[in-house]
Amino acid sequence: MRTERHRGNGPRRRGFTLLELVVTIVVFGVMAATLTVFVRPAIDAYMGSRNRAELAEQADSALRRMMRDVQAAVPNSIRTPSADCFELVPTLTGGRFRKQPDTENPGSLALDPSAPATSFDVLTPLSATPAAADFLVIDNQNPNDVYSGSNRSPVTAVASPPVATAGRHRITVAAMNLPLGYDGGRFVVVPASQRAVFYVCAGAGVDAQGNGTGTIRRLQNYGFNAAPPAACPAGGDLLASGVASCRFLYEPNQGATQQNGFVSIQLELARNGETSSLVLGAHVANVP
Asked: At a CB cut-off of 8 Å and minimum separation 6, what does 177 contact?
């Protein structure tokens, strides 16, 4: 602001001149252009990097959750209605049971293949102790067996053997017939609170804003369906959103010995034009 003195009057103030306003506007315009050219790309790069990191973390978390169930599943229990979903039966624990009586130490209990089994001794440590109502599965050769219940029986009691030499646990189950010819001596336990599990990818795609439109959900505790599923079910807990594409592939007889399957899970998430793609594969032991 400029101040001028006039004869007979006090100081008088006047505003900016037109030239000063033009110069000010030009300076601010140059500063705005500089910010747009140099600062905006850095901000966009940071936001893009943050979006990709968050997408990768979300995809990795979903893949690891799925793979954890795959690797702990009952052998030969994976069923795939389509490349958009798969079903399996995750286990709680597993071990080996006594196949023959201990002739040196009395008090042991073995499974008799010729009669319905009700109780047996566990010889190996268990990572978790089964509870009543959990399910015991022996010799799952075909995917539908564990679902139909032909080799599955509910646990009724878990106790310590009467003598230490008999084993680590004594498990009582509802009467079940052992599969003929099975001599593996292995069993797995399926938690009653979970039972079979479905992983479903639905609505995958990308909208006009570059955001994924699909979801990955985990459906559990719906029981056991004896017949193979004809289509992917709906519902379940949300594992991932913003899914642009997904694909579940399962090969039940991977390798020359055909004792291992292979699962490949491909997942891509998208947000604001940024994408994160992850692929995870794992071998699955199919020897019951």
From this structure: 116, 117
Residue ending a domain, choose from 190, 212, 244: 190
Average pLDDT over every residue of 37-58: 75
In a domain, 12, yes or no: no
Which tokens go with 285? 């032991």
Is residue 127, in this structure, part of any structural domain at all?
A: yes
Which range of residues forms the domain containing residue 172? 93-190
- Residue range 92-103: mean pLDDT, rounded: 88
Number of domains in the chain: 2
Whether residue 207 sits in one domain with residue 176: no
Question: Do 227 and 242 lie in a common domain?
Answer: yes
Q: Does residue 93 register a pLDDT over 90?
A: yes
pLDDT tens digits for range 66-91: 999 999 999 999 999 999 999 999 99
One domain for residues 59 and 107: no
Q: What angle do CA 134, 138, 142 make, to 5 degrees?
A: 110
Q: Is residue 14 part of a domain?
A: no
Q: Could you give the CA distance from residue 140 to residue 146 in angstroms, rounded to a whole number?
A: 6
- Sequence letter at residue 72: A
Q: Looking at the structure, do residues 80 and 202 belong to the same domain, yes or no?
A: yes
